[in-house]
Amino acid sequence: MSKYNFDEIIPREGTNCIKYDARRQIFKSAGVLPLWVADTDFRTPDFITDAIKKRTEHEIFGYTFKPDSYYNSIIYWMQRRHNWTVKKEWISSSPGVVAGLTLAVEAFSNPGDGVVVQPPVYFPFFSCVKGTGRKMVQNPLKIENGRYTFDFHDLKSKITKETRLLMLCNPQNPGGMVWKAEELEELSSICIDNNIIIISDEIHSDLIYKGNRHIPVSMVSEETAQNSVVLMAPSKTFNVAGLATSVVIIPDRKKFELYEKALNLGHLGMGNIFGSVALEAAYTYGDEWLEELLEYLWNNFLYLENFFKNNLPKVKVMKPEATYLIWLDFREYGMDDSELTKFIVRKAKVGLNNGARFGIEGDGWMRLNIGCPRSILTEGLERLANAFSGI
Ligand SMILES: Cc1ncc(COP(=O)(O)O)c(C=O)c1O
After folding, report:
1. I need a labelling partner for 223 at 20 to 30 A (CA). Which of 181, 189, 203, 288 fits?
2. In degrees rounded to 5, what are phi and psi of residue 122?
3. CATH class in words for 18-45+287-388
4. How far is the centre of ligand 1, averaged over its atoms, from the C-alpha of 310 (Å)?
5. Is any ligand 1 atom within 6 A of the Cβ of residue 191?
6. How far apart are CA 45 and CA 239, in angstroms?
7. What does the pLDDT look like over 273-326, one tens digit per residue?
8. Secondary structure class of 65 (helix, strand, coil)
């Protein structure tokens, strides 16, 4: 018996939420069904909202520090969920994972240094590199047996002595891959041999489907741990992205201090009271809710997969190993990126993420978010099927 009701429709309009309230601006139409930006339409669980409400009862929200219970919630969560033993002195923070990625790029490299990115990938990776004046080294993923994998040959051929960092997306957005031990081992060994630090965005690491195991990159080996920075957050899992609170885990003391220096320069280390309270509640009480969420999401995926097979067989669905983001290959329709985007927005009236934003490798692909009640997903899929029928 499920305890939580993921089928409930919760109207989000009028809350300034990007997914719904920015539709007119982004898609030029408020009638688009939004299956795009990566938050979910599920209620943040009661153990988190209760903790926030309780904190509001004390009506002073001045400067605070993070208590031991906050650090312990992270340590025990990492142990329970990933079998990863994390020490308190490795734990830093950032006001959001993208902020942490940018701070890490600034802390561990200099303008003009090379930073490896592996497209198609979550597009702020590109701006973290370009916006900080670093040089982007593109090492595209390749598709093998229906899933993305690393192209080590290409990586080795592109590394120069100016290459300082590699930005890993683990699990991968948009393909939903959970990188396997052997993939991470080889990647890490190339990085260690070439003095390249791994910055690993692991924001989706709680959203792992059955049969897969998330490996924080630092668990690959002691040497890898000393050579990597891992960013995680409760934001995707528990739908609290608006609280802008993430965890940055850095086992190597020197790197930890360099990162903290960058963080504290902007007075960013304190975070915000409600983000810390929410994180602690999520990581303390979140297991049961998360198991139910994963089951609901997986059933949404099976529903979607079946729907495409029966109604839109030209669209090829990449099977996710993690995340509620589904990567769809529309290339058989022969439309270029702009045609496809216009068609889906204007004809189907569905808001998806345009694949080319994740790199040219995503041209002809779209990303669809299944983090919503089944009835919303059904409506979106039916709109797509009606629009594409007959072409
Ligand atoms: C891989 C990845 N990293 C980071 C983020 C955003 O993180 P934040 O909102 O904490 O900056 C997302 C959101 O979709 C994501 O998919």
Report:
1. 203
2. -45, 120
3. alpha beta
4. 32
5. no
6. 9
7. 999 999 999 999 999 999 999 999 999 999 999 999 999 999 999 999 999 999
8. coil
